[in-house]
């Protein structure tokens, strides 16, 4: 899952990114409305954390522009503006959730996971892939009932494939899900992560679609318990 953080306070933005990273969420930071738009023009995001007080405009105007352009990316407004009128205005402009500062990072991560889950049409955070069961919110994985420990990038790769719902994701799309825009990544790194996931969770978990990319090799059963 790849999140865009639109926040002009560098310390707050860095803290959010660090907190989301601990929950297995990759994030890029934009400190202005113009930078946020440039990020979205460069690549898609699974969700956005949007501050309203930006140095080159109001976040609400930016949100209005995105919705008018048909961008349905889930947006969570994160702001110090906490009046009922502010919240009503945010939802009227198209936000999917609204959280006021100060806030708790675990709550922010859970809210973002819920937004992406609903956008993907999943009613539950639990998904079953054959003998593999995944808790998308908690980042936990079991194989035949036994817990399996995944590295952070392995989890990000697995989550991206589950969220794709069986669609083929290209190497470029998966790189976008696993890494930030400012990270230098080796050409064979993705294949290494795929190999590790297959070794830990089964060779048939991920299917290579020659010339196109990767997809889940096992049908997902949402709502597993």
Q: Which CATH first-tier class of the largest domain would you pick?
A: Alpha Beta
Query: Average pLDDT value?
Result: 86
How far is it from the N-terminal to the C-terminal residue, by CA?
Answer: 23 Å
| Estimated radius of gyration | 18 Å
Instruction: Give the number of domains.
Output: 2
Q: What structural class should be given to the helix and strand makeup?
A: alpha/beta
Unreliable stretches (pLDDT < 50, length at least 5) are none
Instruction: Tell me the CATH superfamily of the largest domain.
Output: Response regulator
Tally of contiguous helical segments: 8
Could you say which overall geometry the principal axes of the C-alpha atoms support? elongated
Number of strands: 14
Order of helices and strands: EHEHEEEHEHEHEEEEHHHEEE
CATH topology of the largest domain: Rossmann fold
The CATH architecture of the largest domain can be given as: 3-Layer(aba) Sandwich
Which strands sit side by side, in order, in the main sheet?
2-1-3-6-7
């Amino acid at each position: 899952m790849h999140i865009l953080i639109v926040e002009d306070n560098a310390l707050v933005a860095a803290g959010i990114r660090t907190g989301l990273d601990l929950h297995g969420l990759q994030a890029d930071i934009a400190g202005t409305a113009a930078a946020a738009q440039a990020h979205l023009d460069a690549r898609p995001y699974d969700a956005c954390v949007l501050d309203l007080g930006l140095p080159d405009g109001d976040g609400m105007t930016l949100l209005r522009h995105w919705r008018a352009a048909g961008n349905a990316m889930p947006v969570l407004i994160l702001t110090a503006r906490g009046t009922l009128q502010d919240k009503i205005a945010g939802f009227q402009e198209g936000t999917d959730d609204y959280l006021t500062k100060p806030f708790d990072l675990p709550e922010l991560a859970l809210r973002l996971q819920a937004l992406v889950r609903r956008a993907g049409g999943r009613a539950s955070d639990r998904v079953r892939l054959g003998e593999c069961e995944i808790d998308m919110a908690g980042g936990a994985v079991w194989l035949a009932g036994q817990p399996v420990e995944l590295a952070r990038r392995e989890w990000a790769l697995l989550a991206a494939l589950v969220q794709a719902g069986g669609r083929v994701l290209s190497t470029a799309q998966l790189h976008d899900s696993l890494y930030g825009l400012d990270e230098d990544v080796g050409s064979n790194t993705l294949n290494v992560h795929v190999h590790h996931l297959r070794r830990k969770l089964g060779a048939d978990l991920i299917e290579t679609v020659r010339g196109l990319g990767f997809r889940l090799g096992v049908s997902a059963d949402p709502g597993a318990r």
